[in-house]
Amino acid sequence: MKPCDHWRESLAELALGEPAGPELTEHLAKCASCSAALAKMQSLTGEIDRGIRQLTLAEPSTDGAARTLAEVGARVEQIRWWRPPGRTVAAACAGVVLLAASLGLLRRIRTQQVETKKELSAAVGISSWKSPTRELLRSPYDTLLERTPRLGEYFYKLDSGSPKMKNSAPRAKEKQNP
Predict the structure, then answer these.
(1) What angle do CA 91, 95, 97 make, to 5 degrees?
(2) 3-class DSSP state for residue 159?
(3) DSSP label at 177?
(4) What is the tens place of the pLDDT at every residue in 44-64?
(5) pLDDT given at position 112
(6) Nearest 5 degrees, angle CA 111-CA 112-CA 114?
(7) Positive or negative CA dihedral for 85, 86, 91, 94?
(8) What is the tens place of the pLDDT at every residue in 132-164?
(9) Which domain holds residue 9?
(10) Do residues 28 and 35 make contact, with C-beta atoms less than 8 angstroms apart?
(11) Euclidean distance between CA atoms 86 and 120, whole angstroms
(12) Domain for residue 101, yes or no?
């Protein structure tokens, strides 16, 4: 319930322990909403007072500081046990760097090997390559022209109907048959 606006501050002071004036006492007897608001305020202040009393009655023990320091020391020791010393961290970092450098070097070597194989296979292909022009310019008589004819021999075989080559001497068999 909502108290009357005119008496709100007086009700709060009364709930906190101030004595009530005659006008406020007379108003509380007549107004039910202000009486309910005062009862609610008094119950809330009572709960607050009880909580404060419990806190003040509970004093810390005399060995509380020593227990706290011992617990903090134990936690620090646990943390130190999990944290490696600086030399171990440095050695681990150096190992990681060495491993990364080794892997990079191995990769570079492998890449160079692959490229070398490609280049060598290309060189083999080039060495066995034949010019298409050379093949096109080849004559069916190239085998005949590989050696030069000796004097007195015919370049072409002579049959009865085949033409004779100029400046060719007759065969020895033909001379014998007149």
Answers:
(1) 115
(2) coil
(3) -
(4) 888 988 888 887 777 667 777
(5) 95
(6) 65
(7) positive
(8) 776 777 777 777 677 766 666 665 565 555 555
(9) 5-59
(10) yes
(11) 51
(12) no
Q: What is the DSSP letter of 157?
A: -
What is the DSSP secondary structure assignment for residue 59, as one 8-state letter?
Answer: P
Q: Please tell me the distance from the alpha carbon of residue 51 to that of residue 107, in angstroms, as a whole number.
A: 72
Q: Are 57 and 47 in contact (CB under 8 A)?
A: no
**Domain presence at residue 37:** yes
Q: Which two tokens stand for residue 17?
A: 């322990």
- Does residue 29 belong to any structural domain of this protein? yes
- Encoded tokens for 154: 């015919």
Q: How many domains does the chain have?
A: 1
Q: Any alpha helices (H) in the chain, and if so which ranges? A: 8-16, 22-30, 32-57, 64-82, 86-127, 132-136, 142-145, 172-176
The pLDDT tens digits of the residues spanning 78-135 come to 665 556 677 888 888 999 999 999 999 999 999 999 999 998 888 888 877 776 776 7
Distance of CA 112 to the CA centre of its chain: 26
Q: Residue 48 CA to chain centroid, in angstroms?
A: 57
Percent of the chain with pLDDT over 70: 72
Residue 153 lies in a domain: no
In whole angstroms, give the CA distance from residue 28 to residue 37. 10
